[in-house]
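Sequence in, structure out. Go.
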Amino acid sequence: MILWFTNVQIVVAVAAGLFAVIAGLMGRRPSDYTVGALALVEVLLIVQVVMAIIAPFAGNLPSGDLLEFWVYLVSAVLLPIGGVIWALLERSRWSTVILGVIAFAIAIMLWRMEVIWTVQVA
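Output:
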């Protein structure tokens, strides 16, 4: 993983999470803005998947458990998809809050993936 890109992803995920949680607590239903914020997080995660495939070939080998890393990454990629489907099916203020909680969860998962990739010794 590349540290600066991971940091960008975490900042974007936290910002999307704050935006969605605040919008939901203000009574807003899911909108193009809240769903779009989570879509941006999803696009960055897909870029991360491509980078994680290429990185070992470029000499950036993980120091932790590769299986654990990929389980985190695949789970993180699937979370926004499930959250957006839920938000579109149940258009309430609480589904907007759930979008924010998903974005926060992804930020934490990204931090953990960075730790698995760089800090741990296999």
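Check: The chain has four helices and no strands. Helices lie at 3-25, 32-54, 66-89, 93-118.
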